[in-house]
Amino acid sequence: MSAERMSAALASEQRGTGHPVVLLHGWALNLAVWRDCARAFEQRYRVISLDLPGHGRSAWSPELESFDRQTELLERSLPGERVSLLGWSLGGLFAMALAARRPERIAKLVLVATSPKFVIGPDWEFGLSLLTVRKFALQLAANYRQTVNDFLELQTRGSMQAGPVLAELRSALDERGDAAPEALRAGLSILEQRDLRAEAAAISAPVLLVSGQYDRITPPVR
Fold this sequence. Notes:
Layout: E1 2-7, E2 10-15, E3 20-24, H1 35-41, E4 46-50, H2 67-76, E5 83-88, H3 90-101, E6 106-112, H4 130-142, H5 144-156, H6 162-176, H7 181-193, H8 197-201, E7 207-210
């Protein structure tokens, strides 16, 4: 059984008992993408899935444009005891920031299809080109639903289960609603500009990295 709650401006679902495991989804999605994982994890853990600010049923406000303000809000939404964090994509950036800044609160870290820096640069060859991210930003202003759909298709492209996975991601959006356009713009800005390499190097918690073989956004190092 799950229970839905509101913490500050963040919506959440909780399942199971035991050590708390907090799940943070990616850009444009919501906590419903974790349902299968949450059902599996609840046999051993207290599973807390959060809607990121402005996503799903979480509220958005202008002061949340900042990555640091969103990180602070996520921290206030964590349980009082130490937690294990599982972050996917944009959610992984927040998870890394929390683990680096508040090590006493984070027991373990799992990062799925994420990176401390999402945009390719002179000293960083992994991720999306700046042109691709800015193209999404321009498209977002014209047709944000189509932009989100294109982004989801990019994430699943190359997968043997691309069709079913894409359908599941779209189902999550249908269930809890579209993210606020302002939250989507802020998220793209974070993905374009944020560089957490220094903070990631300071993380002391055990880390598990999970990467897809054909991931087009955060490809594994070969």
